């Protein structure tokens, strides 16, 4: 029971940065079943490989028996670490050894742990602007000074990166990047940009944290190497996850840490947080992933379905968005990013859309150090094509109403 009695709790300074978000409060209203939501980053639930996971879980219980129930090592389940190496070599041309792999509780924990071992209060972390909210939260919790770098339709702008670094009062501690189908914009970095960024970071002695949850979800264009795999790259920590290619509820992800001194700091950092990632789910993920062809067949199903959903969203946007709106055309991932006319605040638009039972995330909190109010993130993986078309139609209506009489919207 909540109490109103005077409290003797005195919060740590860092909790001042952990504020509830106004947007999250509005979005709570959109969790009702009849709302068409483009808000979360949720995979399509009907595509989860439930039967294959049931078989893998059964195998773990009947073959691994009590060892699947026991505490285990912080580094992670050795066969899974070995599988991650093989997967990364094939998928992103990244060569690493199992000793460099740390299994984490989602890549969200990977971001938190890297920040935990590298960031002191006031340290500068460079991010693409706009940036992934979960990373901003992780960096904020360690009181980082997060600085945004301009990005465009080929990823982070290398001119601006040089300019920002030159203006920083101290050398940035970290450069955080999502080179494939970025959250929130859906934009991917070209190979030229990847190489240039790797070169700048190496010259300046700034380590890179490469976050790659979406790389396998490519619907068009050709595969790009991970920045961590480029010859120019020095000191790059890479993180990937099973969340978007298998199921996010498993909470199994991985960090690739080539430098032993960094790896050795991450181990006690993770120990302090959770001792280790679930013994049981690591083994289930491994049993699922190791069966020849199963994961690749599943990814193929995801690609076909998400490609159609992306196309449905792009077509509907063309049909229903009023003049003055622009949006990204992602080659993969789960999101696209819309810019509406300057006169419209997407927080007002969310209210108007919520009244029509459609939800999205206004772009404002993704922007670092800028008050950009006319952008929004749309997810296209979770709703069916039919719902996507209907949702975008309603969003177009809400926009048209707001464009006519911005002050008249009260919901
Ligand atoms: N990084 C990015 C860019 C993401 O979009 C997400 C999930 N939304 C994560 C990390 C965290 O993913 P998970 O913890 O499920 O692996």
Secondary structure blueprint with pairings:
Elements: H1 22-28, E1 36-37, H2 50-64, H3 78-92, E2 101-104, H4 106-118, E3 124-129, H5 133-141, E4 145-152, E5 155-156, H6 158-167, E6 174-177, H7 191-204, E7 208-211, E8 236-241, E9 253-256, H8 260-274, H9 279-290, H10 294-320, E10 326-327, E11 335-339, H11 346-355, E12 358-359, E13 361-362, E14 375-379, H12 385-404
Parallel strand pairs: 1-12, 3-4, 3-6, 6-7, 7-8
Antiparallel strand pairs: 2-9, 4-5, 8-9, 10-11, 11-14, 13-14
Helix pairs in contact: 2-9, 4-5, 4-8, 6-7, 10-12, 11-12
The structure holds 4'-deoxy-4'-aminopyridoxal-5'-phosphate.
4'-deoxy-4'-aminopyridoxal-5'-phosphate (PMP) binds near residues 108, 211, 241 and 248.
Identify the strand order in the major beta sheet. Answer: 2-9-8-7-6-3-4-5
What helical percentage do the residues reach?
40-55%
Distance between the termini: 32 Å
Number of strands: 14
Largest sheet: 8 strands, mixed
Order of helices and strands: HEHHEHEHEEHEHEEEHHHEEHEEEH
Name the poorly predicted regions: none
What is the approximate shape? globular
- Average pLDDT, rounded to a whole number, is 94
Query: Over all CA atoms, what is the radius of gyration?
Result: 22 Å
Number of separate helices: 12
The chain-level structural class is: alpha/beta
Strand percent estimate: 5-15%
List bound small molecules. 4'-deoxy-4'-aminopyridoxal-5'-phosphate
